[in-house]
Design a protein that fits this description.
elongated; 2 domains; 53% helix; three-stranded parallel sheet; mainly alpha; 235 residues
Length: 235
């Protein structure tokens, strides 16, 4: 783990949930409680699919009758609809079910903003983007800049040699995203998530070649997201 002079760490932590039995929920819950993001690989079975499925339900707006009036609930609502689905999904993992396991899943949902779901059949770059989104959700701007610095053409912070190491690794593993590709992924995801400071950092310090990077395909994708329009106009 790389330490900096102020005692912070630039080493990003992300939990990848692949399949898994009920006992792995202890680690997932602990990670979320410590603000470590979790990327769930849907389609791998086990608690990964259970958590991914109930997460989608928890995001939906539902109505609950209270005092003769229908009340709109938005966000993570632990109601009977969700409880029943948690029970059904967990029974797929353990035939007899488990109240403890069901409770842990519902506890994880309380931190659903730190959970990102990606399907196992997606391309590798899609999974990398999922990890980047997870980091952008959970890290402060200074922490993200420290992570980005590793992949920038010229290092701006301490830790000499890391950028060269990333370059050498890419030469040995050409299928892996290069440092430039990774910065480009960070740029797109930061724009999609309306994180202007990170976008500005990448552009100001020549993290990507703007004229080559912003192709018609990239711009069209960004314009599909309403939040990106103001940032694109500034560019």
């Amino acid at each position: 783990m790389t330490k900096h002079s102020e005692g912070t760490s630039c080493t990003p932590l992300v939990v990848l949930l692949y399949c898994g039995w009920s006992y792995v929920l202890d680690g997932v819950q602990s990670a979320l409680e410590n603000n470590v993001p979790v990327v769930v690989l849907q389609g791998t079975g086990g608690v990964a699919d259970a958590l991914a499925n109930v997460l989608e339900t928890s995001k939906k707006d539902r109505k609950s009758s209270s005092g003769g009036r229908d009340k709109e609930w938005t966000g993570t609502v632990i109601d009977e609809v969700l409880r029943q689905q948690v029970k059904e999904e967990f029974t797929k993992v353990h035939e007899k079910g488990s109240e403890v396991g069901e409770y842990k899943i519902m506890q994880c949902l309380q931190k659903r903003e730190l959970i990102t779901v990606v399907h196992i059949d997606e391309e590798e770059t899609t999974m990398v983007n999922a990890v980047i989104r997870a980091l952008l959700k959970s890290k402060s701007v200074p922490e993200v800049l420290r992570i980005l610095d590793y992949y920038m053409p010229a290092r701006l912070f301490d830790g000499e040699g890391a950028a060269a190491a990333a370059h050498n690794d890419n030469e040995q593993n050409p299928k892996h995203p290069s440092g430039k590709d990774t910065v480009g992924m960070f740029l797109v995801q930061a724009m999609l998530m309306d994180q202007a400071e990170i976008v500005q950092f990448i552009i100001d310090h020549n993290g990507v070649d703007i004229t080559a990077f912003f192709t018609k395909a990239v711009i069209s994708k960004l314009y599909e997201v309403q939040n990106c329009s103001p940032i694109l106009i500034k560019l």
